[in-house]
Q: What sequence folds into this?
């Protein structure tokens, strides 16, 4: 087990009607002038926004609305939010929505006390970011889609729409003060959205499970497996009944625990599937979870030989593959095939050619262009932990995902 | 899944040499005048105390030592600590040790800003405690024994030695600011101590797993099972090699996660095995973990029919019992027998008659005396969740544990 530091101070307030506690939770956290950031649309129509705003009024809090978030949250909206917060002297930011609203709230929260351009926190030259945030504004979350885990994570992903760049800024100051999670709010999510969410949740622990470490992490192995097994069984339950409260609730909390750092304690991470997918969704505006359903199996097929032990563990403990009389390769590839079957069963693509957003063939030129954009995470110019991938490797993974 | 609120703000700093970060962590938490509470003995002789005190000196912190803690921490020492803190105007309490030192530190921390007698927080009449703490003093922990999970929990257990009463006070203000966990510090623990610790860790999730809920908690089921499976496999590894770093590390972190509330999210608790054991160790001064190894299997045999589903899940997923062609009773009793075999293999008793501290037979009179003292947790005068136990039930459990 590697040395580690784990901090997850976000208070989770989970269950039916918990959004009615929002005003109290903000007041407890010391907020008085609140930016209420949301995606409009269903949040308004469903009456959720009114219920939350009423709870703010009941506590005598002042608030200012900012809506219009889209998937893959845009930098331009972040700038608009910072401006509004400065004008209204906001001291607390409430995000009502999923990962996009939360991430743009986090960027606004970091940008508010910062004199420079908030985008400096997101871009790097040769692996060195331009600037590191030291202050932020307290954030609370009312979660409506369980997927990104952003409600308790230290991460923030923003897309610069002009430059077609999707970039992240991970920092503990990004962690929300509280996350209010009412599983009933996720019940009306369309099956495709639900499926994408489940892949994203699983992927956050895949990235922490498929790492270079060979043994020594029994606890985090088991915690990751708890996430995988919960997601898979609850996904099956939701295919039967999309309004299964317990299945929605278990997935919602799994979302939070899969990305607050818990499942990665004592080991390094990989994250190359995420970074490769970021370029796919940056290029074609595909949904992140669907992109992961395409990239992850291809990545697994390409890298498993660099740590067969952990892939064998996953294949047998999670995917239920019987190893008797089979080679490691057979076991692992059977497990990956079973994962693809599971993704397909949820209505997701597992090849780029199956994605409606991608018109025509993805050319080798496009693959190379995306591969070259993938964020470098290692000093030697590669990305990933289990296997360090160079541009050629990434193109090969795209080819496997074609 | 039941509605729940989960907060675990304790920063975990885990790994080799992490005790050298103690001074920095205290300073970061705003401490300047520190009560250093420890058990003396091995903490001194091993050089740990010096290493920690040096890290305090390096940060320019003033400190005052209080030692002499014994297992089942005593109220008298708590009073002494409060007095010392008041005299020296202490603003931070550092516990170096295991559950006893941490719990007496928590009691000192609560008592320091309180005008009345701190014992009022621990005692109740008919289920109503005399007073509830609203303030405490920040605490940090350098953990030397992984067992009670007190390093991140909200709980505090103190024994009033004059009245032979072991009582608890659970409150979120008890949660330490940080817990420093160097697994190497636990390597020299004798096998019996190690074994008792492992049972205590498992028990904290048994109490959260064997609850009245029938389904709906896939995630916390799996999280509990992660704790059980990790403890069992690492315990086996330590029988082979007591200095197995990874096994010690996984057990140490499992200890923290098993009692910070994580494994109990979305469900009620039971806790009757703990409360029954508290009376056993209050009466005979047996080690808590050994007492649990005796009480838990007896409790399981007595109550399993009230929720066979969860016992079947545990028997098949954790204890590896094959259910085919067997009745539920056979499966569950086989699993309980396997648990007893596991405890025995660790060198622990599973009957009161096997405990060296208990001289002669435990008479029915003694059983009744202990049963009558067990803390009531339900309005109807019973204890427990999965099955509500009255005095007669508790005596029956003692009889099964005889």
A:
């Amino acid at each position: 087990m590697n040395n580690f530091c784990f901090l997850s101070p976000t208070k989770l307030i989970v269950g039916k009607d918990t959004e009615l506690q929002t005003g109290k939770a903000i007041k407890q956290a010391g907020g008085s002038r609140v930016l209420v950031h949301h995606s409009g649309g269903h949040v308004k129509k469903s009456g959720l926004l009114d219920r939350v705003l009423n709870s703010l009024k009941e506590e005598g809090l002042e608030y200012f609305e900012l809506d219009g978030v889209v998937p893959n949250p845009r930098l331009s909206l972040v700038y608009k939010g910072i401006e509004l917060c400065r004008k209204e002297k906001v001291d607390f930011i409430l995000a009502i929505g999923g990962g996009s609203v939360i991430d743009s709230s986090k960027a606004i929260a970091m940008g508010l006390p910062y004199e420079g351009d908030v985008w400096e926190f997101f871009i790097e030259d040769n692996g060195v970011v331009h600037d590191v945030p030291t202050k932020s504004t307290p954030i609370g979350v009312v979660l409506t889609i369980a997927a990104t885990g952003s409600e308790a994570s230290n991460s923030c992903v923003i897309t610069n729409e002009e430059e077609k760049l999707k970039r992240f800024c991970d920092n503990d100051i990004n962690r929300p003060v509280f996350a209010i999670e009412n599983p009933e709010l996720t019940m009306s999510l369309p099956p495709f959205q639900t499926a994408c969410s489940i892949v994203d949740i699983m992927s956050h622990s895949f990235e922490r499970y498929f790492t270079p470490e060979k043994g020594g992490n029994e606890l985090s192995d088991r915690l990751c497996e708890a996430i995988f097994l919960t997601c898979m069984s609850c996904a099956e339950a939701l295919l039967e009944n999309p309004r299964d409260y317990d299945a929605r609730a278990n997935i919602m909390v799994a979302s939070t625990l899969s990305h607050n750092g818990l499942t990665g304690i004592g080991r390094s991470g990989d994250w190359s599937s995420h970074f490769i997918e970021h370029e796919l969704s940056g290029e074609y505006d595909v949904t992140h979870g669907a992109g992961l359903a395409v990239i992850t199996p291809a990545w697994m097929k390409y890298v498993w030989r660099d740590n067969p032990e952990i892939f064998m563990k996953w294949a047998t403990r999670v995917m239920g593959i019987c190893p008797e009389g089979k080679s490691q390769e057979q076991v692992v590839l059977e497990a990956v095939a079973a994962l693809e079957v599971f993704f397909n069963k949820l209505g997701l693509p597992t090849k780029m050619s199956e994605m409606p957003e991608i018109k025509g063939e993805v050319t080798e030129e496009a693959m190379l262009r995306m591969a070259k954009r993938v964020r470098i995470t290692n000093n030697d110019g590669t990305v990933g932990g289990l296997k360090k991938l160079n541009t050629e490797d990434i193109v090969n993974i795209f080819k496997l995902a074609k």
